[in-house]
Amino acid sequence: MKNSAIIITGANGNVGSYFAKKYCDLGENLILIIHTSDHRIKKFVKDNSDRIKVVQVDLSDYLNLKTKLAKVITETGWKPDRLIHTATARSHAIKLLADSDPELWKNIINANLIGTFNILKTTLKYFKENKNGKIVLFGSNVSRIGLPKDTAYAASKAGIANIGRTLAAEEAVNNIIVNTVSPGPIKIDDGQFTESYRKFREEYYKEKVRDIPLKRCASFQDIFGLCEFLLSKDNSYITGEEFFITGGKI
Ligand SMILES: NC(=O)c1ccc[n+]([C@@H]2O[C@H](COP(=O)([O-])OP(=O)(O)OC[C@H]3O[C@@H](n4cnc5c(N)ncnc54)[C@H](OP(=O)(O)O)[C@@H]3O)[C@@H](O)[C@H]2O)c1
Question: Ligand 1 centroid vs 178 CA: distance in angstroms?
């Protein structure tokens, strides 16, 4: 049995759970990081408990994350060599910056930027030990077009892409490859959102899709194909990039 493993954050999210199932079907060992719920992954986790370990943690809590991850890695003896960081918090407040609550703003930055720092710092330890690692961070095309009424999310996504660029330069010497994937609107199940946030997204997406040359949102498969390549053995030279998946919209 192989002992490499993929760490996926946001593993119960829309994109994260799709990726987790795909890599489960491909026979990989998985460490799935979830936050509050596991309803999207519960079934296949149960059916593959020898190959899938779940860690429930708030990514903004560095010590807890470090301890829980170390425990799983020690118990399994796995050597993680890929990280897919999809976890994200969104502000459901939908407010102009001028009207935003400083605490809510800080919470999004905390989950998204400090959370990104924390997962990178904890996993890099293992990648560096093995001089081998590939990382895909999830940004968003809002890093280049902004997102009126959600500046904290927009700022965090631009920050993540720049962490990726910088880390790629820092860790190339350790054979660690880092890229950011920045999709435009993705077709997701939005059942988890509040009614007002769902309306906001619906309006936003309707307007954005009008401008997308391919006239549709991205599917999970559109995104998976690129990430799978970036994380594969075939990619030994593409690093530090931010890839926009936007159906032709510049
Ligand atoms: N969906 C889109 O249209 C779209 C477009 C562009 C870019 N993206 C990016 O693509 C990625 C995946 O998006 P998605 O639609 O799959 O998002 P999603 O369904 O909202 O999933 C995000 C996941 O992150 C988890 N999370 C939130 N805060 C966390 C924390 N503090 N610690 C640990 N986990 C936390 C959430 O868990 P809980 O629910 O339990 O809190 C959730 O499972 C994100 O990075 C997003 O920014 C998405």
Answer: 19
Q: Is the residue at 250 inside a domain? A: no
Can you tell me the distance from the alpha carbon of 204 to that of 217, in angstroms, rounded to the nearest whole number? Answer: 12
Domain, as residue range, for 75: 4-245
Distance 88 CA to ligand 1 centre (A): 4
Name 119's Cβ contacts closer than 8 Å, sequence gap at least 6: 7, 9, 33, 59, 65, 83, 85, 87
Q: What is the pLDDT of residues 122-180, one digit of tens each?
A: 999 999 999 999 999 999 999 999 999 999 999 999 999 999 999 999 999 999 999 99
- Minimum-distance ligand 1 atom for the alpha carbon of 218: 3
Residues 6+ apart with CB under 8 A from 236: 177
160: Cβ below 6 Å to ligand 1?
no
Number of domains in the chain: 1
Please give the model's pTM, rounded to 2 decimal places. Answer: 0.97
| Residue 186 CB–ligand 1 contact under 6 Å | yes
Nearest-Å Rg of the Cα atoms of the chain is: 18
Let me know how long the chain is. Answer: 250
